[in-house]
Every structure is written in structure tokens, then in C-alpha cells.
């Protein structure tokens, strides 16, 4: 207290406080400033401090505090209106609207008081000469809130019919309210049409497009426009996140996640705002938030996650089931308070409808990193005792049918049969098949079960299937690393199977199974011996084994799906062997044949592995079209059956291929899918291996969105990607690229301080690279961001560092640009005009020296253009410094001093010389330099006028008009130059 000495200091302090983040700290400072204002004993100071207090309360969770300062302001107005200046008088009437909405949002304020206030507002606006537009808008809000739809329609029409004046809300806010009414009336498309100018940036304000983006989410989902909804969520949540006062819009984003299969993301949003559960200053937005929390928790409970730990009100731990009940009770109690005040059931009805919504999209990938909720623990109950043999017979028939046709869920069917059978006595053959398939599902742990199955097959009299089971067991041993032992075992089984087949003591299917197991083991033998002296011998044996499979089943594939699968797999083996021999073209052809064979056999889910191999070979061969075809085929035929990690890999590879040929929109869709499936696999939680996929996918997606100019979405995704990326796993190049892209996004969004941080961190990594081009570029970009962030000293250091790097790289154009930038910084900083001129002179000198040494015509042209730009900026800098000097002299009362005037005139003359040199250099570039030349000419013309030379100024204006005599009349630059030249000519003819 007591740190405010005068009114100006108070105003500076209020301006500083206005720039602070919304919340209790800013509100408390506003209260302190009001106390300081009262100590100054200046009525206007108190009025402005009360207005400041009102503003920060309105844009916070403590909206209920607005009424006291407003009542005091209104009393001061009624008693001494002359104490208010024009701005504060306007502000007082403007805040009437805040009070109207504020009363409506507080259920303890009677509706009669709200209506009385509406009348007061109408009377005061009429006395002040304002339109009734704002009054009718407020009346509409009251009618809509209580559910008086007929009155709301009348007020809505009157609102739109009334003239817009200084008291009307901004266009963005009005369109938000109008669109929301269309949504209430079930007209989603009309609402989105009304919101279009706000969504496209034509109209904006402190809280728009924030609220419109949030409000548009559910309507877009209902209309099936999911891509737009996703974009609005990523873009809008970024705007809403730092603003405490936007709990209602925040709730819209949580709701969106709950309705699109993004429950995990919704939980993360709740965790970011624990105070939203309990802040009571704005009951209406708390009601909206709690209703959405209940919706989300009910959704989690429905998914079997009632016991999942979730974020909730502070002071205790919450499960989804517990929070669902708590939020529902709290929301309905709040709704009942509003309804009791309003005398209608409308708020309660709307709240119940919101809490009971059903998902609008099963799954909408968002691209941002989410940690999936832990699945509910599944209690496996003992299978009921089965005594009805026909049920077991049906299960057995189903399992055999799925197994014989190689359906993807055959193993699950056998497992279900095993559970149903329990201890029921089964025939040896049935028990053999159950045991055999259990072994298949066990992997390396299934070796002993294969032996048990073989014994049961033998007991059932099927010696061929017994051999096949043992051969499968041998292959599992090979997969576990016991290749030599497996090969020895399968060799004997192979001989026995061929002997049985020759004696017609077993069938083709059983024999083919043994022969295939041997071929598989021999292929493992090849991989184990890669690079060893006998590698070619192993390759030959494996190839012979694969061809034996083809010879055995050849001509029989149409009769048996299993045999068709053997044929396709053998072709795939031959392809893999061709790869190992380095014959990529032959390998790709064989993989394609294998894939085609699986499709012909009605087994498309087996295609994925082979098409993925074709894509990899095509990539190596520089054939992106074939890679794209193969990846699309893999997704088309096997997508639903591929494990999440595999799906993520396929989508990511396709995104890279499509992005490489410029199809960035479709590429982004696949990157979204890749990120989603990586998260589904839990890959986002692992630092390496499969976990790398989530980081890669988000990094690629962010870059693809940036290429489309969707900077807000890209920034969200790239920030999320950084949580997964590491130099160890992804390489420091990926980390640098991500921060580089993120810096570009943030720069476009106007967050220059954050952009500078990412660019500097990327530059620090690149500093250690042998090639320093990226380091120099990032240092230069960081300097630009630091300058725009209002950090001139840091910007100067970064530009100086970039300049050193550009000099070392021999890149004169960028060295010169860094010097020019430092010149402008010096003009505004400690270096002053003298330091600025020195840096600009150095920039000219560097450019001239490089131009003299350059022999390459393109290089000379580029340096000539850069020299022209340098002279142009040098001239602008000299003129600016002279103008600022003249203004400072005028403020200090020294304008009559001849010496000072002489210095200013000399600076203008020097600036004119620089501009003339720039015009000459740009003129030498012909048509390519036309716009730059005319720009320099006009700047020189204005200087001529300032120097008291109207004839020369007019001559330069005519020269510009002549230069554009035959130019394109639709070119914006041409039109602007003509207009400026005409203005200069008209002023100085």
C-alpha cells in the first residue's frame, strides 16, 4: 500500500494489472489499487479504479463481486455526473449489460429484481440517447434463460431490428448470442452460418472466437462435420486454457471429448482446472461444468471404469462412480435453485438433457497425447457347469469351422470351448484339438502342450496330425532360439510324414503342415546364420524347402483354404529369401504374388505383412507410388485385424508417403490415425520401441498441419509431441525440427516469447552439429521472436550470434539482415541513432564488398537486391531518428534552436541519399524490382516534401504513376502505389 504517488502512477499500475492473468491475484491487486485511488482524493481516480475493479471481476471466477463497485459507481454518477469524463461515462453505461447478465447468473437474485433492473437499464439508455439494441439483447437473455421461448423470439427480433450504436455488443459477441439461440431452437446449420465471420477471424474480441469455437463443437458433431469439430477443439481449447473466467467454454471442450471417445483427454482437462469444481462466484458456469462432469463420469462407468481414479474436488480421492453421483447431485441442486428463482422447470430440463447425451462419434482421433484410463479389473467367474451336450457340440463345430477357414478369432473360439467343457469327458480327438489350439496361443510356453496334443491325436488314431503338432512344437522352439534342436527334431518328423503320406496313411493337409513347419525352421536357421560362411548353403536349403511346399500343395489350393494359405506363405518365404540375397525387385514381385494368393483364398487379413514389405522395398527403390499402393492395400485388407501398433505403423508410413508428394490434407488424416493407434497400444507411455510411434506420429501431424497454415492446431499437437520425443530414441534432428515448427506456429499466433524459447532451445542442440546452417537460421529466428516479444537486449545478442554464424558460413545476405535488425534495435535502445547508423553502414559495406567479389549473375542479382533493401532501411532509419528527435525537441520546447533544426534537416538529407540509392539499385532489377523501386521513390518524395521541395516531391509522384501506367489494375500493390502517389501529388502540386 502507498506505492501510488499520483494519478498517472495509478493509471500505469492499472494498465499493468490488466495484463496479468485472470484470477484472484489480479482481483486482489485491483482492490488494493482502489484503496490507493481513494488516498489520492481525486474523484476520477476513484471512478477509474472502480471501473478497473469491475473489469477484472467480470473476467474472473469472482463475477459475484461486480455488484458492489457498480452500485457505488452508479451512485457517484447520480450524485456528480460531472466527475466522469467521456470515456468513464460511456463505460458506466456499457457495464449495465454486465450487470444484467451477472444478475441472471446468480440464482439468489430474484427474477423480479432482474426484470426491474432491465427496466432501469432501458430508462437510462433512453435518457442517454442510446439505441434499445443492447436492452432488447438483455431482455432476450432473460427470456431465453427462463424458457419463455415466445418472449425470447420477440426480443430476438427486436434486438436485430434495433440500430447498432456505441452500446451494442461487438459484432463477435452479438453473433455468438444469435448463433446460440439457433442451437437452442435446433437449427445447428443456421448457427454455424451465423458464426462463420467469427470463426474465420472477421470479427474478434477479448473472448471471441474463444466461446464461439467452444459452442460450435456439439453442433458440428451433430451435423457429422467431425474434421471441423476436431479443428475447433484444438484451436479453441488453446485460447480458453489460460482464461479463468471461461469455465462455461471449458465445459464445452470437456463435453466434446466425452462425446467423441476421448474420455482420457477429458480427464486431463479436468485435472488442469481443479478450482472449477468448487468456485462459486459464477453459479451458472459451475452448473454447466458439473453437468458435463456428470456426463463424462457416467460414460466412464458405462465403459466399466467406475472404479477408475479421476480428478475431482480437492480434499479427497475420487473414483468415476463416486464423482458421477456427486456432480449430478450438485448440478441438479444448482438447476433447482435457478428454476425456483425463475418459476419454470427449464434450466433443470436442459441440465438433465445435457447429462444424458449419448456419444456422437465412437472415436475421433485428436492427435494430442493422452494417457488411456486404466481398464476396469475383469473378474473372471467360473464357467457354469455344462451338462447339455448339444451346446458343447455347437461350440466345437463353430471352433472347427473358424479354424478350418483360418478366421482371425479361431483361437478365442477354442478357448471358449475349453472353458465350457471344463472337466467334461471328451473324445480324445476333441481334447487333442483343444490342447493343440491352447498351445498355439501360448507361444514359447506351449511346447509341452503340443506334445500332449500329439499324444491325444495318436490316441485318436490320427498319426499325421500328431506329427503336425510335434512339428509346430519344434517351430516354437526355433522361435525361442533353439534353432538347431528344432531343426533336428523336425527333420525326423518330416521323414515320417512323407512316409505316411506315401502309404496314404495321412492326408495332404497334415503332411503340408509338417513340411511348412520344416521350411519355417530352415528360414529361422538362415536368419540365425546371417553373415556366416555357410550362409548361402542355408539359403539354398530354405529355398528348396519352400519350393517343396509349393510342389506339394500345387493345384490343390482351390479345394482347401488351409492349403491355399500354405501356398501363399511359401511364396512369401521365397520373397524373404530374395530380400536376403539383395534382389529387391524379385522380392517385391513374390510378396505381391503371396498377397494376391491370400486375397484369392478369402484371407485378406494375412496380406498386411507382405504389403508392408512391398512398401519398404518400394521406398528403398525410390518408388513412392508403389509404396502408397502397398500401404493402402495393407490397410484396406487387414486394417481391422491388425494390432494397434501395426495400424499405427501403417498409417504413419502412408502419411509420410503422401506428405512427401504434397498431399498434406490426406497425409494429416493418416497421421491422426497413427497417433490414435499408438495411444491405443499404450505406445505413448513407453520411452522407446513402440512408444516412439506416438512421438513420430504427432511430430509428423504437427508439421503437416503447419503446412496447411493451421497453426493453432499444429501448436497443440507439437507441444504434445515433445512429451514423447527424445534425442536418444528419435534423434536430436527430430527434436530440433519439432521445436522449429513449434516456434513457427507460435510466431504466427503472436506468442513471440514462447516462440523464442523453442527456437533458442533448438538452436542450442544444433550448435553441436558439424553443419551450422540450421544453427544460424534458428539463432536468427530466435532473435526475431525476442525482438517482437519486447526483449531488445536478448534480441541484440541473438542477432549478433546469428551474424557471426552467417559470416562463418559465407552467407552475406543473412549477415546483412542481422546487421540491419541490430540497427533498428540500437535506434530504440542504448545505442541510439549513432549506434544504429554504424550498424547500417556496416551492413552496406558488407553487401558492397560481397557484390564486388561475386562473379555468378544470380548471386550478383541477389546481393544487388539486398543492398537496395539495406539502403532503403538505412534511409527509413535516418528519417525515423530525425522525426523522433524533432518530436522530442517539440515536447521540451527547444524547437526554435537553429542548431537542432540543422541536425534534423541534415538527417533528412542523408535519408534522401539512401533512398535514392535504393531506387537506383531496385531499378536495375527491372520488372522484378518495380514495386521496391516505386516504394523507395515515394518515400523519397515524402522526404522532399518535408524538406520544403514540393516540385521534386510532385516529380517523384508522377514518375511512380508513369511506372504503373500499363500495370494490372487488380494488383493490390499497384493500386496502393497509385493511391499514395496521387496523395503525394495532390498535396504538393
TrEMBL record:
Recorded superkingdom: Bacteria
Name this polypeptide is given: Tetratricopeptide repeat protein
Source organism of this protein record: Streptomyces yokosukanensis
